User: Fold this.
Amino acid sequence: MMELENLIDGRRCKAASGHLFEKRAPATGELLARVPASTVEDVDRAVNAAHTALRQGPWASAGGAARGRWLHRLADLIERDRDALTMLLAQEQGRPSIEMRMMDVPMSVDVLRYFAGWADKLEGRTVPTDGFMGRPTLNYTRRTPIGVAAQIVPWNAPLMIAVWKLAPALAAGCTVVIKPSEDAPLAVARLGELVVEAGIPNGVVNIVHGVGAQVGPPLVAHPLVSKVSFTGSTEVGRAIACEAAKTFKRVTLELGGKAAQIVFADADLEQVIPGLLLGMFVNQGQTCAAGSRALVHRSLADAVETRLAEAARTMRVGPPTDSSSQMGALISERHLERVRAHIDAAIAEGAIKLTGDEPVPPHGWYMRPTVLGGVHPGMRIAREEVFGPVGMVIPFDTEDEAIRLANDTPYGLSASLWTQNIGTAHRVAERLEVGAVAINCWSPLDARLPWGGIKQSGIGRDLSRAALDSYLEEKVVTAAL
Ligand code: NAD
Assistant:
């Protein structure tokens, strides 16, 4: 059992209140860690430390090349500790270790290196004009760090999403206060230790643990915070946008989703079934891009539903640290109850459970991959984000109908489509109201590609040059000659 601490101004410290809360292992229910229950006082100290590091000291005077070297050093340390980080994530999330080994840990390294490369390339522009009041002018722009960034992280990919936020902010020269999720604080705490080991100056990265409702609001409201980057639920994102508006803070909001996976009549089912399974059940369906709604051409709908249910029935649900497990446990008992309630509501509306009642390991918050039959587009299960291992097949007849069904949700994060026809693929990709479309695959993420949603899936983008730009202001300088 560990006792975690905050990281403020390069030093590990307890919450000012002295209070702790418990973090339990999803796969066993055992106590994993006691975590500081921080409050406004800790937030204020962390923001002040970040603000001081921004204005004076080694970070403030460092050039972009030095910032890049620090980011590379942090990437080196994550690479060195990849096995331990993989196991820590598996333990705290209940998620199969293979997913972290293949995705979260290597992607964290890649994202750090990608943004390290940008750190010394923050070039401004020279802009010719007709001059000012009869005098010629020299006009140029400078890219300056936006200031202190508050970065609020969810539990479903805690290390990777913390790095998605940290890396562009540091490349831009900002300083940060990270608030990890109370449901997955361990790997982010370890990241803080690696930040110190990498020699990143004190106060540049601060980590304040705590319950969302206690730490989040004072962090978002703090007058010395210039930007809030949040990944989490649409409900909390809305509250953050309202609070941030009061002081005109910049916001990046990566929120919920209800992705469709559209299967056209000419799709290759050998590709489609594993693709649908991945989209529905990776990370126990606890991903914002979860492709829970398979919209399938009526000619294939029965075959796809049968094969999907068969494949789901044979998936290995087991301990996250066992390399043969394909699915682990859900993050918490509360979340398991929430997902069960969505299924019960769907059944009350007429859905049928085709799979999901097979046995699960005796301890922990496990749930079998569940495929529902008889789902109609108007049912709540087809419209609301479940964030659990629940999939469904909904038939369609025409391309227009598929697009209408896919877009008929308040969310707009991502979608997949499966077809052999290049014309169909690009025509439909154009008309889907989402931030990311995957053709003949599900949700490929890459440091170089922007990630984020439209509609109620959020504002702004993580990853890519777009994320870097969101941590920079463009200042214009005009000299009358
Ligand atoms: P959540 O909104 O409950 O919590 C996210 C973070 O916000 C946590 O750190 C939490 O402590 C904090 N928080 C809670 N209340 C707060 C408040 N009032 N003010 C400020 N911060 C507060 O979300 P979650 O359950 O951790 O994550 C699941 C959600 O995240 C899903 O809706 C999922 O779709 C979304 N998500 C989106 C993306 C994306 O890239 N779009 C990626 C991952 C997860």
